[in-house]
Write a structure and sequence with these properties.
The protein is mainly α and 486 residues long. The chain contains 22 helices and four strands. The chain has two domains: 244 residues, Growth Hormone, Chain: A (Up-down Bundle); 183 residues, Growth Hormone, Chain: A. The two termini are 27 Å apart. 48% of the residues are buried.
């Protein structure tokens, strides 16, 4: 198993070689196949609803408990991700902390199987496992992104990045289907305490343990500029730039991050204005993407009156098609560069969003075409029978492709414009931004919905995030040749 980089000597990493479908490129992408089902199954669709409704007891209390876990984990990562990013650029083997983070993630998933209703400490223990697991997931994402330059030649990185998201989406849907089939048709699972809700955690742990092996066997390691985690830690926590107040390096560093975050961010804008402008743009439009993913089901259920089953079918279809989006994003990055790719993808999202907003139960295209009549019987199911239903359902094809392509291009854009010795640090900011501002999108939708008393007008507020992010993106400089190839 090859190692790339400093070892203990502290030299810079040698340029990697290989195509998108070489063994190490596939091994890098298989990481997302192994890990991403955690988010789909545990965080969104299976365990979290089970925990809220069955373990906590449903209602506002259950929703609040799950929301609190995400909020607390987001706060922890907002404070620690930039520090970890600095350490990643300087430290030793990246595979060591990757293994640790995935071990913690798998252990938390496995232990979720013991969270049953009525347990004396089920609620606080379950919340703790969700918080720790979410943090481990985010840390593993930061580390995995930072090791991408070792997965192949520079020209192959866009496709490798896209392949990872494509495989991650496919794995997430595959695990969801496994959970649905076991939950619906297995009497053994149905008779278990907690059913598929409790079993979902161990299933994810087994999936992770089996499919992560190729990553550790075939993906080359990569070292930071110092090549030692202990030396990197000592140097990071004694940087004079972080001696805002006090004489103890650790306290001084933490003070600058916690008590004076604005000073820290402004400092980075001064040092790396181009990269920080992109991170600001991405922070804004990523909030729009988050709202589309998290509130989209609520929107279509309210505006079109779709049942829970129809919403789930719509979501699974979107995830499957999104796998194509990962490859499309990789192609656009390689063909036009990540900045042009992002402009295309964000513009497409805005156009598709307005087309979706034009649909009501009775009409499409803002009332121009009557669409409340049935056009088929949904294969006898009664699902998606009206012209409005069919029209809106078909918008998931370009929407899912554009959204996942945008996520792919965003990841590669950061690698493309970042100094090669600061990639980990900026992926720390990348992770932090999503945690700090995740509330902005829902706030805009809530405020506009309340003010206009109209669900469609309220949801249209998302477009402001995409337009604002796109406007800032236009000011970002992205040469055809990436920084790590200069």
């Amino acid at each position: 198993m090859a190692n790339i980089g400093a070892g203990s000597g502290g030299t810079h990493a040698a340029p990697a070689t290989g195509g998108a479908f070489d063994i190490k490129g596939i091994a890098w992408a298989l990481f997302e196949w192994a890990r991403n089902p955690y988010y789909n199954v545990i965080v969104i669709y299976v365990f979290a609803p089970y925990f809220a409704q069955v373990v906590v007891g449903g209602g506002a209390e259950g929703q609040a408990a799950v929301a609190d876990t995400i909020k607390i984990a987001g706060f922890i990562m907002a404070l620690t991700a930039p520090i970890l990013g600095v350490l990643v650029d300087k430290g030793g083997s990246k595979k060591v902390p990757i293994f640790i983070s995935l071990f913690v993630l798998g252990l938390c998933s496995l232990m979720l199987g013991g969270i049953r209703p009525g347990g004396a400490a089920a609620i606080p223990f379950g919340m703790t496992l969700l918080i720790v697991g979410y943090c481990a997931y985010t840390v593993s994402e930061l580390l995995h992104n930072s090791i991408l330059p070792a997965a192949g030649a520079q020209k192959s990185l866009p496709m490798i990045s896209g392949l990872g998201l494509a495989m991650g989406n496919t794995a997430g849907v595959s695990m969801l289907l496994i959970c649905l089939l076991l939950g619906e048709y297995s009497s053994t699972v149905q008779n278990l305490p907690g059913g598929i809700g409790a079993l979902s955690g161990p299933l994810v742990a087994v999936w992770l343990g089996v499919f992560i092996l190729p990553f550790f066997l075939f993906m080359p390691d990569r070292y930071g500029s110092i090549g030692s985690w202990s030396k990197a830690t000592l140097q990071t926590f004694s940087l004079p730039n972080f001696r805002i107040w006090g004489n103890i390096p650790v306290l001084s560093f933490l003070a600058s991050m916690v008590m004076n975050p604005a000073v820290f961010v402004v400092q980075k804008f001064t040092e790396f204005p181009n990269v920080m402008r992109f991170l600001l743009a991405r922070m804004i439009y990523a909030d729009g993407v988050a709202v589309l993913l998290t509130l989209g089901g609520v929107y279509i259920a309210g505006v079109l009156g779709w049942s829970a089953t129809e919403v789930i079918i719509f979501g699974i279809t979107g995830s499957l098609i999104g796998a194509v989006g990962g490859l499309v994003g990789g192609f656009l990055d390689a063909r036009f560069g990540p900045k042009i790719a992002l402009i295309i993808e964000l513009s497409a999202i805005v156009i598709i969003l307005f087309i979706q907003l034009s649909v009501t139960r009775e009409t499409i295209l803002f009332g121009l075409v009557p669409a409340g009549h049935d056009v088929w019987n949904g294969f006898g199911t009664g699902y998606f029978t009206t012209l409005a239903d069919v029209f809106y359902f078909l918008t998931i094809v370009p929407a899912a492709i554009s959204i996942v392509a945008c996520i792919t291009s965003s990841r590669y854009m950061l690698i493309h414009i970042s100094p090669p010795d600061r990639i980990g640090e900026f992926f720390g900011f990348y992770a932090m931004a999503g945690s700090v501002t995740v509330w902005i999108g829902p706030m805009i939708v809530s405020a506009m919905t309340t003010y206009f008393n109209d669900q469609r007008l309220g949801f249209s507020g998302i477009s402001l995030l995409f337009v604002a992010g796109l406007a800032i993106l236009l000011t970002v400089k992205a040469d055809r040749e990436p920084e790590h190839a200069k």
